Known about the structure:
The structure holds 2 protein chains of 2 kinds. Chain A is α/β, with parallel strands linked by helices. Chain A has a single domain (27-218, 229-291), classed as 3-Layer(aba) Sandwich (Rossmann fold), CATH 3.40.50. Chain A contains 12 helices and 10 strands. Chain A has helices spanning 23-40, 58-69, 87-101, 110-113, 117-124, 128-146, 158-170, 174-177, 202-211, 228-242, 246-263, 286-291; strands spanning 12-14, 19-21, 49-53, 73-80, 105-109, 151-153, 183-184, 192-194, 271-272, 279-280. In chain A, the strands form 3 sheets. In chain A, strands 5-4-3-6-8-7 form a 6-stranded mixed beta sheet, sandwiched between helices. In chain A, helix 2 crosses helix 9 (202-211), helix 7 (158-170) crosses helix 10 and helix 7 (158-170) crosses helix 11. By secondary structure, chain B is mainly beta. In chain B, a hairpin with a 2-residue loop joins strand 4 and strand 5 (40-41). The model of chain B has no long low-confidence stretch (mean pLDDT 94). Chain A binds chain B through residues 1, 10-13, 15, 20, 57-58, 159, 201-203, 206-207, 210, 220-221, 224-225, 227, 230, 233-234, 237-238, 240-241, and chain B through 29-32, 34, 36, 40-46, 57, 59-63.
Amino acid sequence: MKCIRCKKEAEVELKSHNAAFCRDCFLEFFYRQITKGIKQFKMFSKKDRLLIAVSGGKDSMALWDALIELGYNVEGLFINLGIDNFSDAAEEKVKAFAELKGVGLNIVDLKKEGIAIPEVVKKTRKVPCAICGQIKRYYFNKVGLDGGFDVLLTGHNLDDETSRLFSNTLHWKIEYLQDQKPLLPSENGLLKKAKPMWRLTEFETAVYAFFRKIDYLEISCPFSKGATFSQYKRHLNAIEYESPGTKIDFYQGFLKNMLPILEEKKEKVANFCKNCGYPTFGELCTVCKLKML
Amino acid sequence: MVEVSVEGKIFKFDTPVAVGKILKRLGFLPMEVLVIDNDKLLTRDVVLRQDKKITIKVVYSKG
């Protein structure tokens, strides 16, 4: 197989783009897709101060690396979840990367905050991924606003978005579908949030991390084993294999045709936490409630 | 013989064998794995004709 751009031997085949690329041309393709994703939603510019939430996994590390290469002003935010044999290993990877690249890194330690995930799960008996997500979003917002950043970024890719869309559609979770877009504007005490890799698949991100020799954490969170979204990703991959381009069509079709209808019915956050001021539907936000347990 | 390492397990295939055929036999879709030959990625049309050790890295998140 030959690279469609330079005719060298290809290392990557991308059926959804009807393309194959050598290493150099793939990297250009990857950067172009990120730039296109950013510009399509006017997410941010090179003047903005960006904060990227990094887990130590391939997606967030690849995005961080790519944005540095593209010349953006981006600092990392790592949240140590306090999960034995996982969180500290992830922190080491993230610290090493920040040091190698000479970029800023902010760290929140949930053990020090008194809400390490294993303890919270034990106390509340809630689904770990749901409660972890709520806690992470709280600190993404807090660190972003306190630090004067313009936008918070996450490494969600097309597979993350389509598997979530698939799940939310299967179960008609309208309130989640209303928020499922690559850019959430700043409003009501919430920092602007963006997902610049929404056009790129998990495979493309893994290829980028391999070519760029990014040292990322390869083990999964012990609490997330067998998560439903992973099963949906594999179902969607099987469809994508038979009909290349389905995933991006599914997501872009949703953004264009369905989201505008859903947004008209969206309920606005009316309250702010009495303790910390974070936007919430109740009197206290989840994190403040957990700290009081 | 081509030795294929997948998450610590070794599978052996007689040569010549196409990368696509190896993936099919192991039950992987091409977009779910990286097929690595030293520092290089192999596309599914590559036919391995000589003895070689390659690695398959699963890239879909299991979490």
